[in-house]
């Protein structure tokens, strides 16, 4: 009678596991992929070493003047001398404590929200902070003579501070409006559906640069001469209108992705329209739409650079303005690279946070 002996399992071939396996599967899986991979590696070899040499290895970090800086590589000491301009624009230097304090308050609110995780009063506290925060931000950044805080007109705001203000207001204000437009487009009431569709299709068909131009030039013509409509407020209204219609379409896609059975189950449970949307449909639609919503917000953050056309100096505009300094002529490239790095870091963090939200609200496992 024959006997069977179990053989010891052999390790997987080195060509299929680890770094080697990844390279073979992704870069050298066929002759065509291998050819393209070598071309890509050669192009990276031509680009990356000179770029690193210009940015880091041969760069100047300590020179006190433009004449002392090297002309063959980056002069990052220029950014150090202009950092306040990049961060705050023409905001008075003696008032820098106000945006800095607002940043500390923002971080504190975020920490409070995290610490309240699982607390039954969490939603009420967060909602209260959400309504209080805009007033705190306004009185800190703009000021109030009544409160004894010096008024700083919005045309003096600039740099990263202005970019964050415009993007944050656009994101926060456009989200509920977008939800309302999406629900309006799904409504069975013809007049509400018509108005929602008209608003979405009309605004979506106009470039943001034209909306900003009209908000800056045309909108004041509809007011009497005694009314001074703030330029930044006009820009915020235009950006919010533009972003709202895109958020509406993203959320409408999420609403259509919710299974029909969920609608029927909510109706069978006796929920009215508001309860059905708030408790059953919208949470699922928003969860489905998280990647696209964050993608729209990232696009909005990048579009804030267009406020330059109406005379507001965001971070990119400041990078161009800073080179007009006679002491630092010819350093425009360093300014633009610095702005690109800062914006990339912010957008990368937004993208990572969206992945965290997706995992948090994932109910498939």
List keywords for this structure.
365 residues; single chain; 2 domains
What percent of residues adopt helix (DSSP H or I)? 55-70%
The CATH superfamily label of the largest domain reads MetI-like
**Biggest sheet record:** none
What is the CATH first-level class name of the largest domain? Mainly Alpha
Whole-number total of structural domains: 2
Number of strands: 1
Rg to the nearest angstrom?
Answer: 27 Å
Percentage of β-strand residues = under 5%
- Distance from N terminus to C terminus (CA atoms, Å) equals 49 Å
Going by CATH, the architecture of the largest domain would be Orthogonal Bundle
Query: What is the CATH topology classification name of the largest domain?
Result: MetI-like fold
Compute the number of helices.
13
Shape: globular
Mean pLDDT: 86
The SSE string, one letter per element, is HHHHHHHHHHHEHH
Structural class: mainly alpha
Q: Give the low-pLDDT segments.
A: none
Question: Your description of this structure?
Answer:
It is a single chain. The chain has two domains: 89-152, no CATH class; 156-360, MetI-like (MetI-like fold), CATH 1.10.3720. It has helices at 18-26, 31-57, 77-88, 97-115, 122-141, 159-186, 190-204, 208-217, 231-257, 260-268, 273-303, 315-322, 332-360, and one strand spanning 313-314. Helix content is 67%, strand content 1%. The radius of gyration is 27 Å and the shape is globular. It has 365 residues and is an all-alpha fold.
């Amino acid at each position: 009678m024959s006997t069977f002996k179990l053989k010891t399992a052999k390790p997987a071939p080195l060509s299929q596991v680890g770094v080697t396996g990844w390279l073979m599967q992704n870069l050298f899986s066929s002759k065509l992929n291998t050819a393209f991979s070598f071309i890509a590696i050669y192009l990276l070899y031509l680009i990356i070493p000179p770029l690193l040499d210009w940015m880091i290895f041969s760069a100047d970090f300590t020179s006190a003047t433009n004449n002392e800086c090297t002309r063959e590589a980056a002069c990052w000491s220029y950014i150090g001398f202009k950092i306040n301009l990049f961060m705050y624009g023409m905001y008075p230097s003696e008032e820098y404590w106000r945006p800095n304090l607002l940043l500390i308050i923002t971080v504190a609110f975020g920490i409070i929200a995290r610490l309240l995780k699982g607390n039954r009063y969490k939603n009420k506290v967060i909602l209260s902070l959400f309504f209080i925060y805009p007033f705190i931000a306004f009185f800190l950044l703009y000021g109030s003579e009544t409160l004894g805080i010096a008024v700083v007109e919005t045309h003096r705001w600039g740099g990263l501070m202005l970019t964050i203000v415009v993007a944050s207001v656009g994101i926060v204000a456009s989200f509920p409006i977008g939800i309302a437009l999406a629900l309006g487009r799904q409504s069975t009431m013809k007049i509400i559906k018509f108005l929602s569709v008209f608003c979405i299709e009309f605004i979506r068909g106009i470039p943001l640069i034209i909306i900003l131009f009209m908000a800056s030039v045309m909108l004041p013509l509809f007011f009497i001469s005694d009314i001074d409509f703030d330029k930044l407020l006009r820009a915020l209204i235009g950006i919010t209108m533009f972003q709202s219609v895109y958020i509406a379409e993203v959320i409408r896609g999420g609403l259509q992705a919710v299974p029909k059975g969920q609608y029927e189950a909510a109706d069978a449970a006796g929920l009215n329209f508001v309860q059905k949307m708030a408790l059953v449909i919208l949470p699922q639609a928003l969860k489905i739409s998280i990647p696209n919503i964050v993608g729209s917000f990232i696009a909005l953050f990048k579009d804030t650079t267009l406020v330059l056309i109406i005379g507001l100096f965001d971070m990119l505009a400041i990078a161009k303005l800073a080179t007009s300094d006679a002491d630092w002529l010819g350093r425009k490239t360093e300014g633009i690279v610095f702005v690109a790095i800062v914006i990339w870091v912010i957008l990368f963090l937004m993208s990572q946070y969206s992945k965290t939200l997706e995992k948090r609200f994932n109910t498939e496992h």
